[in-house]
Amino acid sequence: MKAIRRFTVRPVLPEPLRPLSDLARNLRWSWHAETRDLFQSVDPERWAASGGDPVRLLGGLRPERLAELAEDRRFLRRLAAAADDLNDYVTGARWYQTQTAELPAAVAYFSPEFGVTAALPQYSGGLGILAGDHLKAASDLGVPLVGVGLLYRHGYFRQSLSRDGWQQEHYPVLDPNELPVALLKEPDGTPAQVSLALPGGKQLHARIWLAQVGRVPLLMLDSDVEENALGERGVTDRLYGGGSEHRLLQEMLLGIGGVRAVRTYCRLTGHPEPEVFHTNEGHAGFLGLERIAELCAQGLDFDSALEAVRAGTVFTTHTPVPAGIDRFDRELVAHHFGPDAELPGIDVGRVLQLGMETYPGGEPNLFNMAVMGLRLAQRANGVSLLHGRVSREMFSGLWPGFDAEEVPITSVTNGVHAPTWVAPEVFRLGARQIGAQRTEDAMTVGGSERWDAVADIADQDIWELRRNLREQLVTEVRERLRASWRQRGAGTAELGWIDGVLDPDVLTIGFARRVPSYKRLTLMLRDRDRLMDLLLHPERPIQIVVAGKAHPADDGGKRLVQELVRFADDPRVRHRIVFLPDYGMGMAQKLYPGCDIWLNNPLRPLEACGTSGMKAALNGCLNLSVLDGWWDEWFQPDFGWSIPTADGIGTDPDRRDDIEADALYDLLEQRVTPRFYERGQGGLPDRWIEMVRQTLTLLGPKVLAGRMVREYVERLYAPAAHAHRTMAPEAARELAEWKSRLRSAWHGVTVDHVETTAATATAELGTTLGLRVHVGLGGLAPEDVEVQAVSGRVDGEDRITDAATVPLKAAGGPDPEGRWVYEGPLSLDRTGPYGYTVRVLPAHRLLASGAELGLVALPAEDVVEEAGVLMR
Q1: What is the pLDDT of residue 545?
Q2: Crossing angle, helix 436-444 and helix 126-141, to 10 degrees?
Q3: N or C: which end of the chain has fewer CB within 10 A?
Q4: Which pLDDT band, with edges at 50, 70 and 90, does 765 fall under?
Q5: Nearest CA to 217 among 249, 192, 246?
Q6: At CA 299, angle to CA 297 and CA 303, rounded to 5?
Q7: Under 8 Å between Cβ of 535 and 543
């Protein structure tokens, strides 16, 4: 019989054990080994059965066991120490509290998904794991962050395989009462709620669940409440599920409801109000509209409120492909805003303006969430150097007249949270070398360029560690493979072969990620005979562990999974290559440390960052990857290999895959496997061990989430907080009025005449030229603009590369025709083909960059011909 209702019966902890509840409710246990060890000692079998989830562990304990523990003095001493340690962690001064710069009182960080722990399955892939690592690193550093997301009742799907290898999806129901979260409550004990107005007079209500991530509160909105009609209850049902309207409602709840949830949390707890709002991808972009509405309610007009909101907003884009961005039909968006719906005080036309693709090549009828995110944020970034370049190209239409390299999108390369992803054995090896506290500080706060202490670890210790981790992975793979085959319908008698799957002494390659086509899951299958030869080589075999989920609506991705699974099912190679279904955090934490090589072969440059290789590197795994994302930035032959790419314009996709697969096989055959298997005089693979050492020494400090969050604080949060404080209502009105005046007058700004005065007739290195420029300002004043000389090397089409800019000074005017004269020096500081031009940009003390408005005035063609190009 099926229950008509379910609820959770919690045990009452005896008074001496009450701190266990606090420890279980703070997700710091997910990256703090001592706390996990304490919970494991409560009941090792039940701890394993609970999947390492303290809430489930405590929920299933027998009263007799609780009574025993309440009398166990040794356990109570450990419990008291763990509770004291957590208290010190959440209340003591950390890196942020020691900084002398003026930093934000608080930062609100919005993301559609958060991968904090497998016990809170609210993530689908890299974006969520990155967001979880961001919260954890912020907690370790003491950054006063407030996370904001949604609580999905089904999370992301669980994956299994049919008998013929086709992906199956399952959506288990999550009961928040069984998760490490608690309802945010009003002083009278009722659950705190936020509401959104829907068309037709309906309402969307949501409760606020609180997950405590170390020092960082994570607020998660849940629409599955009795006050909602059935349709509204389902808004937070699935991550990335449903059609357009469903997604739009999720994103309105995340952005608009999320700001309201932050205000509610600050009111109830006294937490400082955020000065900076950071949106992780465009899904939460509507948060800017809610903040504009707040300011309009306080008396600001829309344009002034927009300037005030932009000043304190940071937008991070994670996708290098337009298909990865949420876009909605403009009519659908218009239907959900205005007098009969949400934000009735804001003109629907102004809402639409923020997201419309009003630039060459854009779709004028689509509302683009990333475009809105960029228009509502004064600061934006990609997530690796290469991705920053790709993003500047991709969104350059928003800044017409500027070369892509001047588009105001910077980059902060992602990092990973070492305490979450580093195997305990690796941590212990470091602690043996430099002590536990220094090892923990190195992995959380970071800051050093190199981990030189790794040089003192003996080769034998490194090699034994690597073999131990490989052996653990082999055990894990066999267990998961056996479970997968049972789900596929195999009987126990058919599965004897699994005991021989993988070998702890064979070179092990890992490949695990989502399965969109650009990540090329099946590139390794391009020449199956060559792959078989590699897998079955008599002296230098390889073995491969593969995992990944295709999106439920992506049949192409599912076909790739099935193709890989069918190859791995072949009795000739199934002991050497495996596909593990249901890739998630729990599997990943075993997979990264146990592999010797982490393989990544996306179509360059479509990988924004690709953090899985960073997690592997922190465990001494070497990377074998296309030069994309973070690997393009930090690759060195000392600690890995780069797969050559055939990404020239016009290369046929099939031909490209053939070329790059051949390059991959060549690397494995000629360079990777020989290095792993060759032995030095001591019987160890000396050159391989040296690469592991270099990976830890040089890459380790770079790939940390602590380094990433410190960069966000110093380069984006601190300037945004300063701009937010500067942009008081009067300043916001001033800037809005100035921008309006500037836009209406800009058509009259011209560069009319450019002349040079040279000290000598020849242009030699070290020469300084005098520039004299006549500029029409069209009714603007000299203080409204900056006139610049732009110079540098030129290519064959006279485009300036590696440009340097020098501001010119007003030297007189206006003349009878209203023109102003600007002058300044131009130093010829490099040899070769060299050129210059002159331009006029808007200038105001409250602008973050001269490109902010996308306005620029350049010399007309006849002026260019007259001025000429220097040194051709």
Answers
A1: 98
A2: 120
A3: N
A4: confident
A5: 192
A6: 95
A7: yes
| Alpha-carbon span 803 to 135, nearest angstrom | 38
Contacts of 570 (CB under 8 A, 6+ apart): none
- The two tokens of residue 295 are 């300011």
Distance CA 439, CA 698 (A): 15
CA distance 520 to 606: 11
- 580 sits in which H/E element: strand 577-580
What local confidence, expressed as pLDDT, does residue 247 receive? 96
Give φ, ψ of 797 to 5 degrees: -105, 20
260 closest CA partner among 249, 270, 273, 247: 273
**Six-digit token string for 136:** 């954890």
pTM of the prediction?
Answer: 0.95
Crossing angle of helices 653-667 and 528-535, rounded to 10°: 20
Q: Which helix (H) or strand (E) holds 120?
A: none
Question: 289: exposed, middle or buried (C-beta count within 10 Å: 0-12, 13-18, 19+)?
Answer: buried
Written as six digits, the tokens of 87 are 């208290």
Length reported for the chain: 872
C-alpha to C-alpha distance for 611 and 615, rounded to whole angstroms: 7
Residue with tokens 């509405």: 293
- Using the structure block, give the residue that is written with the tokens 């379910």: 6
**What average pLDDT does range 799-809 have in this prediction?**
87
Single-letter code of the amino acid located at 812? G
Is residue 262 within 8 Å of residue 109, measured between CB atoms?
Answer: no
pLDDT of residue 826: 84
Any long-range contacts for 344-350 (C-beta under 8 Å, 24+ apart)? 344/197, 345/293, 345/296, 345/297, 346/289, 346/292, 346/293, 346/296, 346/302, 347/302, 350/302
Sheet harboring 785-794: ordered strands across?
800-807, 785-794, 834-842
The number of beta carbons lying within 10 Å of the beta carbon of residue 501 is 19
Mean residue pLDDT of the chain comes to 93
Q: Dihedrals φ, ψ of 107, to 5°?
A: -130, 130
> pLDDT category, 862, cuts 50, 70, 90?
low
Crossing angle (nearest 10°) for helices 33-42 and 18-25: 130
* Whether pLDDT at 762 is above 60: no
Q: Which residue from 412, 377, 427, 469 is spatially nearest to 696, judged by alpha carbons?
A: 427
Phi/psi-derived region of residue 220, left when phi > 0, alpha when psi is between -120 and 50, beta in every other case:
beta
- What are residue 262's phi and psi, to 5 degrees? -60, -45
The strand pair at 749-758 and 768-777 is best described as antiparallel
**Helix, strand, or coil (residue 397):** helix
Alpha carbon of residue 476 to chain centroid? 28
User: What is the phi/psi pair of residue 563, to 5°?
Assistant: -60, -45
Side chain identity at residue 866, one-letter code: E
Q: Residues 359-412: pLDDT tens digits?
A: 888 888 999 999 999 999 999 999 999 999 999 999 999 998 898 999 999 999
Which residue is associated with the tokens 């890299």?
126
Whether the predicted pLDDT of 870 surpasses 70: no
Which of the 8 DSSP states describes residue 109? E
Which two tokens mark 676? 């792993």
Evaluate if residue 767 carries a pLDDT over 80.
Answer: no
Assigned token pair, 667:
């690397």
pLDDT band at 763 (very low <50, low <70, confident <90, very high): low
Q: What share of the chain is helix, strand, coil (3-state, %, to 5)?
A: 45, 20, 35
Backbone angles phi, psi at 91, to 5 degrees: -110, -20
